[in-house]
Amino acid sequence: MKNVKSSTKQLAFYSPKNINNARSFILGIPITVWLVLIVLVPVLLMFIMSFKQKSGYEILNVFTFNNYLEFFKNETYWKLLLKSFRMAFIVSIVAIISGYPLAYFISRRLRKFRNFFYMLIITPLWVSYLVRIIAWRTILGNRGLINTALLNLGIIKEPLSIFLYNQVSVVITLTYIAIPFVFIPLYTSLEKIPNNIIDAARDLGASEFNTFINVIFPLSLPGLVTGFMLSFIIALGDYIIPAQLGGNTGIMYGNVVWAQFGGAFNWPFGSALGFILFFIAAIVLIIAQIFGSKEGIFVE
Amino acid sequence: MDKESSNFSQIVLKNVSKVFQDFVAVDNINLDIKKSEFFSLLGPSGCGKTTTLRMIAGLESPTSGKIFLGGKDVTNVPAYKRDVNTVFQDYAIFPHMNVWDNIYFPLKMKGISKKEAAPKIEKVLKLVNMLNFSNRYSHQLSGGQRQRIALARALVNEPQALLLDEPLGALDFKLRVAMQTVLKDIQQELGITFIYVTHDQTEAITMSDRIAVMRQGVVDQIGTPDEIYNKPATPFVASFIGEMNFVDGKVVEEYEDELKVKIANNFIICKKNNYLIKKDDEVLVSIRPEKVYINPEQKLPNQIYAKLSRIVFRGDNYQITTQFDSSELTSVVAAKSINLNFNLGHELRLGWYTEDVQVFPIQLKKNIIKYK
Fold it and tell me: What is the ipTM of this complex?
């Protein structure tokens, strides 16, 4: 009897369930290592760094809250953070307003060439970030596309300088950068809506407009929230676009963080500024997540 | 029958066709569905039954032909303005709304306030026996419960007709049988016209007042379940509904309203029908297994002798296969009614009544459905 018992135990160990568990454990190792090394460790290092102190060209191994206190004492920093939040918010809203019709049209209206248009919108992601930014400088600049066109049409006599080196140019370019990131999750969530749900809405008396308002839009909300978050993160932390196109007024929080690591050589303070951004952005994203999680989105 | 034909035509399809690119889904069909009728569109997958239903709903527009609803031409009326509602195959419950909001949806679209809607919603929820589920979401319901909610949602507006697209297809057998009764009861209680699409012949036979049997976009036969079962108009209908024996034969003699047909070395008598069949024509003869009697006590009009080749016990009956020459005949007898003390190869006397045999031109043999 004893033998039988132990052999069943052995069998239980080799049961498909256990093998599956072991397999998913092994398969999970690379991604775990990757996450720890590439994401968790740097954030942790930055967090530790933010409590150190810069002295001349040295970083002292002390524990201090001075870097965080500096942020709250100096209103330039938190005002700039607020301004960056405002800009990132505007960018995300504009990106969604322009990306939604695009995603809706391509995912639900087009019958042919759907993949072609999808790729067309994704293509800019393959072009260097810097190249795309410089491209916008040539569009918005003094002798850029817009000014030249307006001059040639005789609408203006002198080139307008309102397009470049201010907040507007930063918002425009950030929006352009963000649109594919808004488009992809929106497209996915719109495409996932089963046709018979739309048929049911029409059948039950909903016009095209009512079907959109009552069925399609609510069901696309998860994609919309994801798109918003992606766009928000991209815009909030960016420092290259403000540096290239922002001039004096278009400067963002990211530039200040960057400056601490670069010119100012104050890594501890830069880390503290970075961590504050990280922390507040995380709170905003959690709120967005809660707002976006609607009951009964398609679960397999 | 007279009562029905004098009734008001609820839905009429006149020469309706639907062509998708190069595929003819529905080929010039005519239907006349009466008020309060339980009407089924029956056929194998791809026969055009769902397309027909979608055209009635307005979700698909016919390539040619006209559709009338309650006497009015609705061919060009969009789905949301048509006074018919559909129960979809996989229910199409809105996943972001709870049961109550799902059922409120069609009322909301009509501009009815929540307050006004509440008693109506309660009424349909009671009708489908789901009163306690109004706060649930689709993913919290079982298949049968979703089915009931889809039904309630389609009924709450009291449409002129309810269209059901294989509504029980996704349910398991016992639940399906239970839901058949629920549907039939509700139809009789409300007196609403039901158009029921199914590929399940038993479902169609047990529930319908009339059935249209479809094949490759055309209607082969429209009739009561009794007519469809006992007087199939084509070999396709005969083979699609229930079990059927088919035997090749040749007409050897033509009488006033009967034909003498030679099958193998036997002669049988068949009633004439609408087909133009003359002497010397090759024919296809069909008879239901339960109409073939084994060793009948009295002499029946048609009799042949055949050798017993297989006996299968099927619970309440036996399926007995016999062979004569190269042909096979299957009969079904109630389990209790027969003494089966025969060995395989034993010669049996098979008999049947003349009116139970159908005779078709041999050209139609290709339309027989063979299940493999």
Answer: 0.83
